[in-house]
Amino acid sequence: MKNYTILFISLFIFFFSSCDKKNRLEEEKILNKKNINSCVKKVDNILRSEIKIFKNNDKDFDSFYKKIKLDYPYFFQDTLFNFFKEISRDINYNIIFDSVYVHYKEKNLFSDPIKKGLCLTNKYFKTPNYKIISIIDDDIIDTHTPPFNPIIIDHEKNIIIIQLQWFLGKNHVFYTNRKQPVPEYISERYSSEFVASLLLHELSKSFCDNKENSLELFSIMINEAKPYLFLDLIMPDFEEHIIFGCTREDIDFFYENAASVWKYILENQFLFSSDTNLKQKFIIPSSYNELGTPGRFGIWIGWQILRSYFNNNNVSIQEVLKENNYLKILNQANYKP
């Protein structure tokens, strides 16, 4: 009887210690949800520069510019005067602005989640007080290839720029009425609900130490997945498809097929292969590839491995993002989809 009691106690302790480990990420997210509003007011409001320029009722642009550069000297500078004056009268820019203004008016639909994300970022990393500016650009014109992440970060000047012409909703004519329409798996992210996640994802890259120049599939999976683990913590209120920049259906597919895809990768010894074709199968954005799976499945699996690594080891998020011994991550994650 005594042996059974000892065994039961051991299993009891193991079970609950395992539960604690598995809940580390969720516990941190719950804590962040409680504290998320405490320092949001410390983050500056977003400068809607396109409204300042294109809703300007002052007929004398020169005098208008003298006034506005006093209020926002970090953006409206003397060297840019001629550029801003020119685009304020440009037909294409005015058409683009009209579409952006119809969609957003003067409401910063994306402002609050960005502020909350930056607030929580400061909990983990010392960051400057970024100035966030929305702009419009004519790169929406058909001759340009659509960017995956229309966010620009100037780390020297501590400025983050959002190109709003790329966040008008996936069915906007700017993306569909083109010689080469933007693929839906890309335009899916071109709506206001994805602004914060794409911005914070781009910023999170600067906190990661990655294994440079490695062509092995597993290294790429982990390199690409690290920012998403950080977004887990700084966007605790958001659903996984918003964080990852895809559809709910894609996320459902990932969970339903993770075990079989992971088995396929292992059985074919792809994990440490440098075959460039593997990027097309598991890393590159696409609708459905030759495997019949949504693009970036490998990155999503990398994200789940990092979650397991964080949950099953006594490591901080900073340590996970800085860890570039990926074999250690693989061995200690104990990932079992």
Q: Would you give an account of this structure?
A:
- There is one protein chain.
- By secondary structure, this protein is mainly alpha-helical.
- The protein has two domains: 40-205, no CATH class; 210-333, no CATH class.
- Helices cover 54% and strands 5% of the residues.
- The protein is built from 17 helices and four strands.
- The protein has helices at 2-22, 24-35, 49-54, 61-71, 81-87, 91-104, 111-124, 173-176, 184-187, 195-204, 217-234, 240-244, 248-267, 277-282, 297-311, 317-322, 326-333, and strands at 47-48, 131-135, 151-154, 159-163.
- A four-stranded mixed beta sheet has the order 1-2-4-3.
- The longest helix has 21 residues, at 2-22.
- The chain is globular, with a radius of gyration of 23 Å.
- The model is unreliable at 1-21 (pLDDT under 50).
How would the global form be characterised? globular
Number of strands: 4
| Rg, Å, rounded | 23 Å
Percent in strands: under 5%
- Counting helices, strands and paired strands, the structural category is mainly alpha
What do the pLDDT scores average to? 89
The domain count comes to 2
Oligomer: single chain
Task: Note the gap between the termini.
Answer: 37 Å
Number of helices: 17
Run of helices and strands: HHEHHHHHEEEHHHHHHHHHH
For the largest sheet, list the strands in their spatial order. 1-2-4-3
Compact overview of the structure:
This protein has 17 helices and four strands. The protein is mostly helical.
